[in-house]
Design brief:
The chain has 63 residues and is mainly β. The chain has a domain of 40 residues: Ribbon (left handed beta-beta-3-solenoid), CATH 2.10.270. The protein is built from no helices and five strands. The strands form two sheets. The protein has a three-stranded antiparallel sheet with strand order 3-4-5, with no helix packed on it. A two-stranded antiparallel sheet has the order 1-2. The chain is globular. This is Cell wall-binding protein. Keywords: Repeat. InterPro entries: Cell_wall/Cho-bd_repeat. It comes from Streptococcus pneumoniae.
Length: 63
Amino acid sequence: MYYSVDDVVSNAFTKRMILDSFFAFNCSGTMKVSTWVYDKGEWYYVSSSGSMIANDWVKDNGK
């Protein structure tokens, strides 16, 4: 999945609010999924749907 703002794909990691959820995109505009992202001094997990998980516990590799 690709995403751009004003028809320009960002050259840096960015997050966008879409339908009340934050989604993370890499520098090529591809949505990040099932991974950790670091934003403003905090780590967030990005779910398989692409939404960023906040204020919740996430099991990573069964831990």
